[in-house]
């Protein structure tokens, strides 16, 4: 999983230090959430910087961010270590996302305009094309754009902001690299768009929250498969 991040960093030599730190944090967060970095693993500044093709500074800042999120802790004279991640932790993260997503869906269904629904349809067509091309990075970007547009249509900007920040814990690449998930996501979006055109709040709420229930099940199955909690 190092390659996609390393390539992105190398493509963007002029990126701001703060943004580079965010990218490193996102990479490490995904590796923790997917069990690549197991609880008890020490994350070494120099080794991580070399692996990602960056300097030590953005790695240090990324680890500070992850400390604030409770994903790593600093042990004196030893460095940063990954903290335990339980099955309940994963379930709680996705439960919170699903709860916010359902609330946003209820408001979006009432407030969204026909033009905004048309934009969602366009974005879903882009997602379908990316799935057909088997392009994980484009799939992740387009999926994000679809839900950003959906949430923005609610007009509840602060609530959408909270969902955005909780969604950082969602390791996008384990979904976008799964062709079956991609096709199911496109179909789910089509059903959501149909519900919006009918102003069917109940169905929209169910579909928008259900994506996180499905995401939790897929991630937990992956962590079970690799023996995360054995």
From TrEMBL:
<keyword id="KW-0238">DNA-binding</keyword>
<dbReference type="GO" id="GO:0003700">
    <property type="term" value="F:DNA-binding transcription factor activity"/>
</dbReference>
<dbReference type="InterPro" id="IPR011711">
    <property type="entry name" value="GntR_C"/>
</dbReference>
<keyword id="KW-0804">Transcription</keyword>
<dbReference type="GO" id="GO:0003677">
    <property type="term" value="F:DNA binding"/>
</dbReference>
<dbReference type="InterPro" id="IPR036388">
    <property type="entry name" value="WH-like_DNA-bd_sf"/>
</dbReference>
<dbReference type="InterPro" id="IPR008920">
    <property type="entry name" value="TF_FadR/GntR_C"/>
</dbReference>
<protein>
    <submittedName>
        <fullName>GntR family transcriptional regulator</fullName>
    </submittedName>
</protein>
<dbReference type="Pfam" id="PF00392">
    <property type="entry name" value="GntR"/>
</dbReference>
<keyword id="KW-0805">Transcription regulation</keyword>
<dbReference type="InterPro" id="IPR036390">
    <property type="entry name" value="WH_DNA-bd_sf"/>
</dbReference>
<feature type="domain" description="HTH gntR-type">
    <location>
        <begin position="18"/>
        <end position="85"/>
    </location>
</feature>
<dbReference type="Pfam" id="PF07729">
    <property type="entry name" value="FCD"/>
</dbReference>
<dbReference type="InterPro" id="IPR000524">
    <property type="entry name" value="Tscrpt_reg_HTH_GntR"/>
</dbReference>
